[in-house]
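Checklist before submission:
- one chain only
- standard amino acids only
- sequence pasted in full

Submission:
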Amino acid sequence: AFQPVACHSVSDPQVVAAWASVPFPAPHSYSLPDTLSTYRQDVPWKLLSSCREQKVSCCFAQSVVLRGIGKESHISNCPGKQPASPLHACESTEQILQHYLHTVFPGALSTSHVLEQPCSTLPPYPQFFSPLLTRQGFLLDRLPSYSSAAVESIPVLAALQSSPVLHTLLYGLYKDLQRLNARRGASFFSAGVEHGDFQEALEELRTLSQCYATGFEADESEDEADSD
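Returned file contents:
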């Protein structure tokens, strides 16, 4: 099992990575369980933070918000028919999302929130959407035979995660700052920042990065540090 090699106290700073799906890829004719069932090996959102994207294998904690999926279209059960999956057996949008998060990230602390109101994309919101989107932001399986109107709203899924991605982001920032030429930053230090304080903050950044590393990543970072 993946575990962070260090942990924070309550007073320590916490860092999260931002992810989002804009719009959430919900086909017009699919229910929410149908849609999420197609994302069992990967998640339907992309990394927004300034870090090279990685395949999400685990996370330690997360908060996820889904908006724009109406109650009338999220259930696909038929009376007397066996549910196609545990997701299809859920009785509400909240249960569906929570079950999905527990399935994809077992053992992670997950909180989820569902809002029916979609995100408005009326002018001056830029119309850069695919012609496959309906006016409500749902995916069509083929291009419409008529000229579609502007997208007025979209469903959105967003997440804040504490995960190993943060180790890559923070350790990469540490390495970049470590290579900083102090002579080029003379005006920075002359403005009142002590060089010793800068080095101390740099080491704190390295320590913080280790809080989000798995055992393998922590060992890899130590090997890189030894080779510098």
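Reviewer check: Residues 195-210 form the longest helix (16 residues).
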